[in-house]
Amino acid sequence: MLTDQRASNRIAIIDVGSNSVRLVIFDGMTRAPVPIFNEKVMCGLGRDPEDTGKLNPEGVELAVVAMQRFATLLRAMKVARVDVLATAAVRAASDGKLFCDRIARETGLTVKVIDGLEEARLSALGIISGDPVASGIMGDIGGGSLELVLLDRGEIKKRVSLPLGAMRLHAVFGSNRARLTAEITRYLDSVDWLSEASGQQLFAVGGSWRSIAKLFIAQENYPISVVHNLAMPRSEMDELTHIISQQSRISLEKIGGVSKRRVDSLPHAALVMNMLLARMCPNEVVFSGHGLREGWMYEVLPEDLRQRDPLLDACLSFAEDGERFHQHGEEVARWCAPIFSELPDNIERLRLAACIIGDVGWNEHPDYRAIQSYNRILRHPYLDLNHHDRVFLAYTIGSRYTGNFKGDEASDRILDDDARLTGRLFGHVIRLGHTLSGGVEGILQQTRLLLEGDKLILEFDEKVSTLYGEVVEQRLSKLAKLMNRESEVRLK
User: Fold this and answer.
1) Where is the Ppx/GppA phosphatase N-terminal domain (predicted)?
2) Higher pLDDT, residue 327 or 441
3) Residue 72, class by beta-carbon neighbours within 10 Å (0-12 exposed, 13-18 middle, 19+ buried)?
4) What is the dihedral of CA 178, 182, 184, 186, to 10 degrees?
């Protein structure tokens, strides 16, 4: 049964966009919030093929029905805080205020219409929430507008909102390439700071740009289906966006992997990115699942929570929900730290994460624990990792559950030999720690794992020496072999 305390922590955002109206409910204010409810209705409020300057009447009716449903669900779920944010379509429409008034009258929800610069700021905060030192340009393409933000090590330096939304470009210019190019050129040329991010990253936000990533995944049989934090070199993106920008609806539908509601405007979104790349000259494009909603969530967090590591907090939540002894992971991390000195900061962070979620597969069948845990982490939607680190963490946990974990196409394609060896080492030491202690807190504190010369030494307090047995010996020996050392056991 849901406690009143848990219900009172719930917060929600409704994003009223040009294409869709989406409700996301979070189970509380945490550094790595996990949606407990996420529903999108494709309303098309911004579809205005007759250029009337008003909201699409059919879209308005769909949006009202969706908002009525959302209001009922929010009351039933006892959500404590609800923010409704409307972006380009509503703010640009002459009847936008009438729409907001109707929503308030029929649902009791108050719609806040935010301007383009505020939309840009919140979307940029969404990127910063996952990467606090992000540098480059955040580009968020919606149906009605394109927001661009210059980021420098997690600080917002400059921002702009341009009427280059994919739906608007399709509605106004259709497939007229010359007029499209002229329109995009006119607005991008007005942004004189794009080249300041040369050689850095373009963080691509928005459903239309994520559809480009989905096309790449489908076409190339890319082994990870998660779009979030997929990074592609600029040279590949130049070619891909150029090709997509010239495709017809029929051609794109044959490729598959793209929502039918986005097919018409996808070439326009691809052309905008292609022309943006030419002016910005980034080293790569990073597709992000974060945006306005995540930025809103990040902003409402207390300052102390903002300072926490989103990956480690996500792993702690993951462990608390699914492990037998969820407090044990941090103890394992401290226990094995002496044999992994001077790791690069990013690898040390992944080692800590792996120790925290090192018991995630405990309730799987023993024959499938390794591969099930690997797949679970590889495809987990809420781990804020680039694809290399995602595969590395999954491979580490797979190695925790078996001595000879092989991985799959993703690890073969994305990890080099050194990364696989490091993942196996981390996995085997977690395996040893859990075997030695049985997952019980306090036992590892009475032992020490250390390196001396060419030896890996496991040292016991005499009062817990009976914990040493055949299985512990086998796993200590295996770990030592991976480290090209001999194993030794000592009593003190």
Assistant:
1) 33-302
2) 441
3) exposed
4) 180
